[in-house]
Design the sequence.
């Protein structure tokens, strides 16, 4: 018996130099969701005495889904729901996932503080500005509304790899990724903030967190949602309340994490997902996002334990739906 | 008399004015470059220096800007540099020596030389794409320190080869002939004469190439380097047998430029201060590396007596 244990000790010693790989939870995806996941990962590692390693990358929602559907990552940060093309890839690779909304984000239409003529804007007016047909044609403020000045309209918006771009175009123009191309596009929202802050005749859209940090340099424009909006033709400014009750229409949306079902079999990934939902309500406001109602997180936990696979979106964003209603919907794979 | 000399004097005066104007133009160009650089550095320093403290070096990144630090980033940068040096220096120096001392002077060698010089000018992102295809997907090394080290190693390899060749070429042929004359073989000549005499130049090249590699971001982002890493690579020294571990080579990592870029794109101004502080750390690291390079060159020049 003793000889046996010596033998085992010997085997252990001879273990190759690369042995003892610590388990790593790999998260990648949207830069919008990054601050939330970063906060959760920070707390999660502290709670586990740094025994579990969490890495968070920024590949953008689209780039992240490519990795996620190849099975390279365990959790995907997404600032929009998974698209049908991405679902097909996942299906082909045999990757099944659970979709969990984790916070609200809102996109804010901003102008320069010196802009006196624009306090509220209709969705149709924004559509006129940003639709692909406007390219090269709509170049002056006056062309959209005769009351506005006869000056060059300078547009600033998200770059085409960003989930914000996908959502804005879907909500305003009506089709994801369909936008005019002749505007200043940047993946770095600080560039957009600076651009709008330095030009009286500029208009742009940025995530809410960037507007809140730069309230002195930017002016938010109230949205008039129109017929589909809960408040019809009343102008609504973005705020915690208007995003939560869904009246800031149509530019507020939930953001998600997608968890690979196969990874959930590893206890540390399952714990991470549970920890995420249990702490989101506290951590989300700390990184300047708006937390979902408590019910949404408990529903998420149920989805997790019951393994509700697939997405409730049929491959595109549903504009302006309440999160609780969303989560009740039938999920598709 | 004076009428005859006048045109000559005039000519001289005119030339002196042109002379002066040119030196002025040169000085102004230099000042332009220096002032721009100085303005950038001073701006960075004014924003960043107050943020630098022992804690900044010892903390992991965090969602609270005042608690966030660069521990994982500088350790990551250091590990990647070490791997880069380990794979690029032996390869580069050996390749340079071969090309200069052994390779037959024919068109194949010339083709290789031409390609190496071309490689030195290729945009770094191309190396990143190649590394993504070969190291990450084909060899399945993942987004690890090893992948990053190999990628940056390939990136700086041409620089090391070129500088090695140049410093080897600078050694007078007399030395080689003298060595052969006393019966030394080719290898002995290289080992005891060529390498020691050229090591100043080679080391300078090595350090310059490392200081280029330390600031590279594009190829690392291409291979999928991560942004949030709040742990250190596995320690190379272990308490259990076999006491050393190479696991750190396979660990995920982040580096200073990526951390800096991430903080810069945050909405909160406090994170921008962190980015400036990281920039200063990076700048100082490069400066120290370059300083070491200058010092080594100086010492070796003093030692050489031909």
Sequence:
């Amino acid at each position: 018996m003793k000889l046996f244990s010596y033998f085992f000790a010997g085997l252990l010693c001879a273990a190759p130099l690369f042995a003892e790989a610590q388990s790593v939870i790999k998260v990648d995806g949207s830069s919008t969701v990054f601050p939330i996941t970063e906060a959760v990962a920070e707390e999660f590692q502290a709670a586990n005495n740094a025994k579990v390693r969490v890495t968070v990358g920024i590949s953008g929602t689209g780039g992240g889904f490519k990795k996620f559907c190849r099975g390279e990552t365990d959790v995907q940060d997404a600032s929009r729901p998974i698209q049908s093309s991405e679902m097909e890839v996942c299906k082909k690779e045999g990757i099944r996932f659970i979709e969990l909304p984790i916070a609200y984000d809102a996109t804010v239409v901003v102008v320069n503080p010196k802009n006196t003529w624009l306090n509220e804007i209709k969705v149709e007016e924004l559509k006129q500005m940003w639709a692909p047909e406007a390219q090269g044609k709509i170049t002056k403020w006056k062309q959209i509304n005769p009351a506005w000045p006869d000056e060059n309209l300078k547009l600033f918006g998200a770059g085409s790899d960003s989930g914000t771009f996908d959502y804005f175009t879907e909500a305003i123009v009506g089709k994801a990724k369909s936008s005019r191309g002749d505007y200043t596009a940047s993946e770095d929202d600080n560039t957009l903030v600076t651009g709008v802050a330095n030009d009286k005749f500029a208009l742009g859209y940025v995530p809410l967190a960037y507007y809140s940090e730069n309230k002195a340099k930017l002016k938010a424009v109230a949205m008039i949602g129109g017929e589909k909006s809960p408040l019809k033709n009343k102008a609504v400014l973005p705020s915690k309340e208007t995003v939560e009750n869904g009246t800031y229409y149509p530019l507020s949306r939930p953001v998600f994490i997608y968890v690979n079902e196969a990874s959930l079999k590893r206890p540390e990934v399952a714990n991470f997902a549970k920890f995420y939902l249990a702490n989101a309500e506290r951590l989300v406001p700390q990184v300047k996002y708006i937390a979902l109602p408590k019910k949404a997180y408990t529903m998420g936990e149920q989805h997790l334990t019951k393994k509700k696979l697939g997405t409730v979106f049929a491959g595109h964003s549903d504009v302006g739906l309440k999160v609780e209603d969303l989560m009740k919907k039938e999920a598709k794979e | 008399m004076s009428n005859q000399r006048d045109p000559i004097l005039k000519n001289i005066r005119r030339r002196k004015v042109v002379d002066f104007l040119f030196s002025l133009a040169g000085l102004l160009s230099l000042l332009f470059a220096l002032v721009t650089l100085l303005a950038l550095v001073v701006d960075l320093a004014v924003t960043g220096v107050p943020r630098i403290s022992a804690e900044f070096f010892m903390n992991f990144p965090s969602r609270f800007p005042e608690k966030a630090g660069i521990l994982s980033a500088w350790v990551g940068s250091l590990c990647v540099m070490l791997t880069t040096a380990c794979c690029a220096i032996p390869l580069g120096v050996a390749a340079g020596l071969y090309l200069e001392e052994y390779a037959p002077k024919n068109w194949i060698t010339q083709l290789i030389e031409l390609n190496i010089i071309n490689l030195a000018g290729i945009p770094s992102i191309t190396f990143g794409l190649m590394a993504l295809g070969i190291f990450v997907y084909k060899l399945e090394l993942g987004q690890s320190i090893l992948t990053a080290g190999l990628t940056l190693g390939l990136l700086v390899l041409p620089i090391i080869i070129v500088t090695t060749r140049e410093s080897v070429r600078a050694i007078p042929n007399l030395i080689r002939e003298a060595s052969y004359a006393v019966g030394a073989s080719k290898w002995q000549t290289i080992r005891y004469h060529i390498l020691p005499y050229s090591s100043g130049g080679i080391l300078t090249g090595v350090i310059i190439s490392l200081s280029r590699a330390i600031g590279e971001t594009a190829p690392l982002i291409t291979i999928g380097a991560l942004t949030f890493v709040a742990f250190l690579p596995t320690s190379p020294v272990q308490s259990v047998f076999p006491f050393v571990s190479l696991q750190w080579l396979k660990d995920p990592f982040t580096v200073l430029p990526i951390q800096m870029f991430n903080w810069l794109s945050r909405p909160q101004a406090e994170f921008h201060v962190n980015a400036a502080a990281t920039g200063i750390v990076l700048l100082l690291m490069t400066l120290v590396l370059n300083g070491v390079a200058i010092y080594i060159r100086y010492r070796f020049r003093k030692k050489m007596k031909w």
User: Anything to note?
Assistant: The longest strand of chain B covers residues 228-229. Residues 120 and 158 of chain B are 5 Å apart (CA to CA). The mean pLDDT of chain B is 87.
